[in-house]
Amino acid sequence: MALTRLRLSHFRSHLAAALDLDGRPVALFGPNGAGKTNLIEAISLLSPGRGLRGAAPDDLARRPQAIGWKVTATADSPDGAHELTTWSEGTGRRVEIDGKATSQTALGAVLRVLWLTPAMDRLWTEGAAERRRYLDRVTLSLVPEHGEVALAYDRALRERNRLIRDGVRDAGWYAALEDAMATAGARLATHRAAALSRLAAVATETAFPRADLSIEGEGPRDAAGLREALREGRARDLAAGRTLAGPHRDDLRAVYAAKGVEARLCSTGEQKALLVSLVLANARAVAAGFGKAPVLLLDEITAHLDDNRRASLFRAIQALGAQAFMTGTGPELFTGIDAQRVAVDETDGASALRSLP
Q: Which long-range contacts (CB under 8 A, 24 or more apart) does 330-336 make?
């Protein structure tokens, strides 16, 4: 999978931007604040969800105009070329594929996009919610229907929590919602477990250490058991003010395999290396299941890598045949990889792109 054409309009710092691409990795370099991360954030919106920063659609529009924004791209997919467009005019986000309105979920059938950003460096030390979101992004990249299942579960969970907050005790109000949660929750758990199994199957030990992954959670994973747990837990949940059982309480656990040390106890450098290892394993798993490697968005990826790991990363990207968009402050950071080079600067208050030979 690769982008061959990218156009931005009124997206964050980019008043207008255009890139024609040849499928090779892309090195985006320039000073801090020039708009490099904004560019790859736009690409991340060509996949389901709220992109690599999790921003609301109306926060993405260039200021002070605030007239909305638009991202258009041509993508080579296993079944041919497709025109992808996503935009917002102030409220909500809309998507078209080949000129036809569709859902965000449909983007995942055309283009798979994975990313690694500096904010993710804290993944192993933050709360379980961040790791759960990461786990679901990994799962969505490998199991396209996971997005719809997760939405169904979240809708039922929100409604059940609303009943709890309102102090409703009538069992009849809970039964249908718990049935929906149990059905979707069992599928959610199955998808997550399958995703970790597929990552384990392609994990390798290189300059980036292999991570052993597992899901930690309480309670049953099958639909019947989850339904019963929810029914029996109503009194406890009413006292707590929220639903305490279900896959929305799961956590992702990682262990540095060679050392047997949990990721949260590793050094900052080791934690970064484990993340890079996971992203590369995720990319290999997508390539194995989808037929082509995903597009990779690697923000400031070389900032904390020594020469050995930087070279190992470049070799892995080239072995995958992946189009990786990598950002950094200078072109020297990307020595050793055959990549398109694009300088990103700020001109007259807007980001400007300049392709180099």
A: 330/29, 331/27, 331/29, 331/356, 333/27, 333/29, 333/302, 334/27, 334/29, 334/302, 336/310, 336/311
User: What are the φ and ψ backbone dihedral angles of 76, each rounded to 5 degrees?
Assistant: -85, 120
- R_g (Cα) of the chain, nearest Å: 21
Distance CA 121, CA 130 (A): 11
**Structural domains in the chain?**
1-111+294-357 (3.40.50.300), 123-293 (1.20.1050.90)
Task: For strands 69-77 and 26-29, give the pairing.
Answer: unpaired
265 vs 263: CA distance, rounded Å: 5
Judge contact between 37 and 45, C-beta under 8 A: no
**272: amino acid identity, one letter:** K
Question: 245 near 293, Cβ under 8 Å?
Answer: no
Q: How open is the CA angle 136-141-147, to the nearest 5 degrees?
A: 55
351 contacts: CB under 8 Å, gap ≥ 6: 12, 13, 14, 15, 17, 34, 35, 38, 39, 344, 345
Which residue's structure tokens are 């394993």?
A: 281
One-letter identity of residue 105? T
Rounded CA-CA distance 230/216 in Å is: 18
Grouping H, G, I as helix, E, B as strand and the rest as coil, residue 353 is strand
Measured torsion, CA atoms of residues 251, 150, 247, 169, in degrees rounded to the nearest 10: 140
The sign of the CA dihedral 140, 190, 219, 255 is: negative
- Residues 65-111: tens digit of each pLDDT: 778 999 999 999 888 899 999 999 877 899 999 999 999 888 988 89
Q: What would the pLDDT profile of 185-232 be if each residue is shown by its tens digit?
A: 999 999 999 999 999 999 887 889 999 999 998 888 999 999 999 999
Q: What pLDDT digit, counting tens, does each position of 131-155 carry?
A: 999 999 999 999 989 989 999 999 9
